[in-house]
Amino acid sequence: MLKEIYQKEIAPKLKDELGKGNVSGVPTLKKIVVNIGVGEFKDNEAELEKVQEEMARILGQKPTFRSAKRAVASFSIRAGDVVGIAATLRGRKMWDFFEKLVKIVLPRTRDFRGIPRKSLDGKGNLTIAIEEHTSFPEIDPHKVDRTRGLEITVVTTAGDDEKAFRVLKELGMPFKD
User: Fold this and answer.
1) What whole-number distance in Å separates Cα of residue 116 and Cα of residue 100?
2) Three-class SS string for 28-67?
3) Which of 39, 58, 111, 173 could form a disulfide with 83 if both were Cys (CB 3.0 to 4.6 A apart)?
4) Residue 111: which of 96, 137, 131 has the closest Cα?
5) What value, to the nearest 5°, has the Cα angle with vertex 8 and ends 29 and 167?
């Protein structure tokens, strides 16, 4: 399991490289937030339930509906309309999802050439977009009526991009060279 590899091999290695006093000071994964925008069918209850069920299969936990905080007339959205479905993964589910993302999903993604370093936000968090949710092994592409895009944010305890890059690279995140 990836968490055990991190604790036994990666953290001690990075402790020396980053000049930390002990292993507890080495940056690690804090949480992973997964989001799907559903604004185009906000009034279709059946479609919202379908997306929620597919996302629950991918994540291993039931996601929640996210509502618009204010009205946006140009998008025909009123305050309170469902605009997204999201879940926050922590602990074992987070580590399992990260391992699946790095080892299975990203290599299966069509035309994937690596994650650009500019996807880091300046505070040590990585946000990536997966254009087709059918890249996940839990979703049968033959039983899906439409593909959906996901936004995945990997939050680390690094505090800056360089440390986050080192940790994520060691954990197997395929960055562009």
Assistant:
1) 19
2) CEEEEEEEEECHHHCCCHHHHHHHHHHHHHHHCCCCEEEE
3) 39
4) 131
5) 35
Q: Within 10 A of 65 (CB to CB), how many other CB atoms are there?
A: 15
What is residue 137's DSSP assignment? T
Distances (CA, A) of 159 to 22, 23, 127: 17, 16, 15
Tell me which residue has tokens 């002990």.
22
Domains belonging to the chain, first-starting first, are: 2-170 (3.30.1440.10)
Cβ atoms 11, 3 nearer than 8 A: no
- DSSP reduced 3-state for 80: coil
Which pTM was predicted? 0.88
Which two three-digit tokens encode residue 39? 């604004």
Q: In this structure, what are the phi and psi dihedrals at residue 76, rounded to the nearest 5 degrees?
A: 55, 45
Residue 34's DSSP bridge partners are 87, 152
